[in-house]
Amino acid sequence: MSGTGRVLWAGLGWLAFGLGWVGVFLPGLPTTIFWIIAALAFLRTNRRMYERIVRHRRFGPGVRLFVEEGRISRPGKAVSIGAMMGFAALGALAIPPLWVKLLVLGAASAGSLWVALLPTPERSAPGLGPAEAEPGGPRLTSGGDTRD
Questions:
Q1: Residue 8 buriedness (CB in 10 A; 0-12 / 13-18 / 19+)
Q2: N or C terminus of the chain with fewer C-beta within 10 Å?
Q3: What's the CA gap between 32 and 16, in Å, rounded?
Q4: What are the pLDDT digits (tens) for 75-103?
């Protein structure tokens, strides 16, 4: 990557990271999506900042899940879709021209559909490793022991 490219990616990362921090304190401004953008930018330019983002106790797991696996949790989907549609509805109420209302609602609907279609992580029972967390639960032998 050229020096200019690195500077542009780093600038995008820092801008998105800063907007994400503002979103922590300002209702209506999302944090996670900005930190996803920052994490993607920092993967190219600043591995230390990427690790800092994905280690954040509240937002890090969701960012890591999306960036590294392309998945979003069910609660994450619900919050994302609810926020998109809620703020789009508020925006549509506040914007006079009908075509802009329809554009805002259409964009939010398209974004919500995209989020809904993203894969979710497979659910596993707490405390079970991947071998025991197969669909249908663990397989038991007649003695009650689990098979590998």
A1: middle
A2: C
A3: 10
A4: 999 999 999 999 999 999 999 999 999 99
Distance CA 85, CA 111 (A): 9
Residue tagged 């921090």 (tokens): 21
Sign of CA dihedral 27, 113, 92, 97: positive
Domain spans of the chain, in order of start: 1-70, 72-121
Distance CA 31, CA 21 (A): 7
Q: How far is the C-alpha of 135 from the C-alpha of 148, rounded, in Å? A: 14
Phi first, then psi: what are they for 146, rounded to 5°? -85, 145
